[in-house]
């Protein structure tokens, strides 16, 4: 990521530096061309970029009812969300030694809230998430998950990385309010519009625009800590505007830039451990239950795979073939995270693409995760403070990092080979347009397999790609076959 001043020299091109101390040696900070200051800045940047999940996950899960009409308590959901994010992020940092933070996965929590819970109890639904986590760990232990990742051609991996870059840019635009979905009543073929009504109105959008310009200007000027500095500055600006203009908290969306009356909150661990591993199968039957677990598994498996590939490539943690050394540890922790999310009733926990904000600050090791996880741990007692940063102040980082990912990978795709170029193109477009990493990967895989067969190059398709493409084809056909 040569565009950022805080980005270290590619450790693959220069000999590794000698560690300064035990901490440096354990996390390989100097070896990977980073510094302690960069790791700390990266940890803070990642936390602020993904802190919205503390508010959003309880809203998604708390707004749904199970088959008995029960709803999960909001305060308990906040505790479960923060606790699981802290635990799994720290675990990934210490064991996986990568700057990839984890929290309750968006998309998976919607599946749990809208597909699983209405047909069973909440403990049953969360039990199925735990089972999906166990399956992920089993796939890692048998080497199947790494085999799938290794089977992905380099050009398609670059397409996945670019797709993630475009996806997080789209997340930034939507979460900031810069673009919004056209109301269904408009009867238009245009799905998105500028602002909330076709125009850029309101102070929050102005904060976002200024934040984008400030972030990019700081990056161009090669200011150390550009992304984190922009988040802090725009949070202060938002707080001043909020106070002076007398805005209502709802104007900002999920979080409001105002000092909380009481920044201290007491965590409520009431939902932790409230699961029933096999109760859901009694409610919906074995076949439907297996399909539910399969749906959660597929989303968690490939969402994390794409994120790990994209961030690993951007953080320069991959070798010349695009493989990440020690990937099995990372994948196994991800499996633990899925199960831990279900066990705490926070829904499946997965790798967050917002970790690219930390990578943009130069984070290259798991120590950045220690910082991010530590901040989540503190947020258990200071949740009101964690939600002070409005999305309009944090999301500019996603646009900046999305551009850096795209610019660093797009030239490495062999555009002359259409059996690679077209699947990569499909992958990078489908991620933002379907708002799903899993969909982008699935459609790219199926396209790749079909085009290689059409070109008479069937032997060049790894067996794992045939299997995964068939799984995705079945997944997409499930609704037509009335299996969902």
TrEMBL record:
Q: Which domain of life is it from?
A: Bacteria
Q: What is one Pfam family matched by this protein?
A: Xan_ur_permease
Which keywords describe this protein according to UniProt?
A: Membrane, Transmembrane, Transmembrane helix, Transport
Where, subcellularly, is it found?
Endomembrane system
Q: Which InterPro entries does the record associate with it? A: Azg-like (IPR045018), NCS2 (IPR006043)
Query: Which residues are listed as membrane-spanning?
Result: 44-64, 76-105, 125-144, 156-174, 202-220, 227-247, 284-302, 367-387, 393-410, 422-451, 463-483
- What membrane topology is given? Multi-pass membrane protein
Q: Name one GO molecular function term.
A: purine nucleobase transmembrane transporter activity
**GO cellular component assignments:** endomembrane system; plasma membrane
Q: Which PANTHER family match?
A: XANTHINE/URACIL PERMEASE C887.17-RELATED (PTHR43337), XANTHINE_URACIL PERMEASE C887.17-RELATED (PTHR43337:SF1)
Q: Which family does it belong to?
A: Belongs to the nucleobase:cation symporter-2 (NCS2) (TC 2.A.40) family. Azg-like subfamily.
* Name of the protein in its database record: MFS transporter
């Amino acid at each position: 990521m040569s565009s950022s001043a805080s980005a270290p020299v590619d450790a693959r091109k220069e000999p590794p530096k000698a560690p300064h101390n035990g901490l440096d040696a354990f996390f390989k900070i100097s070896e990977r061309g980073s510094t302690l200051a960069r790791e700390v800045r990266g940890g803070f940047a990642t936390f602020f970029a993904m802190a919205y999940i503390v508010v959003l996950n309880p809203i998604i899960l708390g707004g749904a009812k199970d088959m008995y009409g029960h709803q999960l308590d909001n305060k308990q959901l906040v505790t479960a969300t923060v606790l699981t994010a802290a635990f799994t992020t720290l675990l990934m940092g210490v064991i996986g030694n990568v700057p990839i933070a984890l929290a309750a996965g968006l998309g998976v929590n919607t599946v749990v809230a809208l597909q699983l819970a209405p047909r069973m109890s909440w403990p049953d639904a969360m039990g199925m998430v735990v089972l999906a986590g166990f399956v992920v760990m089993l796939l890692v232990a048998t080497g199947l998950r790494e085999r799938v990742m290794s089977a992905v051609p380099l050009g398609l991996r670059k397409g996945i990385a670019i797709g993630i870059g475009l996806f997080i840019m789209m997340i930034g635009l939507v979460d900031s309010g810069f673009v919004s979905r056209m109301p269904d009543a408009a009867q238009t073929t245009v799905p998105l519009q500028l602002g909330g009504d076709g125009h850029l109105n309101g102070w929050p959008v102005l904060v976002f625009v200024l934040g984008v310009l400030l972030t990019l200007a700081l990056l161009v000027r090669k200011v150390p800590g550009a992304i984190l500095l922009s988040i802090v500055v725009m949070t202060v600006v938002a707080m001043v505007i909020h106070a002076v203009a007398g805005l209502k908290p709802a104007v900002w969306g999920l979080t409001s830039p105002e000092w909380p009356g009481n920044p201290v909150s007491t965590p409520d661990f009431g939902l932790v451990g409230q699961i029933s591993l096999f109760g859901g199968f009694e409610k919906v039957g074995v076949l439907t239950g297996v399909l539910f677990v399969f749906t959660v598994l597929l989303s968690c498996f490939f969402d994390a795979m794409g994120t790990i590939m994209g961030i690993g490539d951007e953080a320069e943690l991959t070798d010349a073939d695009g493989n990440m050394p020690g990937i099995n540890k990372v994948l196994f922790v991800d499996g633990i995270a899925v199960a831990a999310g279900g066990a705490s009733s926070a829904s499946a926990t997965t790798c967050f693409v917002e970790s690219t904000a930390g990578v943009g600050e130069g984070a290259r090791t798991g120590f950045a995760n220690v910082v991010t996880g530590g901040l989540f741990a503190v947020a258990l007692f200071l949740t009101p403070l964690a939600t002070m940063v409005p999305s309009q102040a944090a999301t500019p980082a996603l646009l900046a990092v999305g551009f850096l990912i795209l610019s660093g990978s797009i030239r490495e795709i062999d555009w002359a080979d259409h059996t690679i170029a077209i699947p990569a193109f499909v992958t990078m477009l489908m991620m933002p347009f379907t708002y799903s990493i899993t969909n982008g990967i699935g459609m790219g895989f199926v396209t790749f397999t079909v085009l290689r067969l059409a070109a008479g190059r069937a032997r060049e398709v790894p067996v794992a790609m045939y299997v995964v493409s068939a799984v995705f084809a079945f997944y997409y056909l499930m609704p037509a076959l009335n299996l969902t």
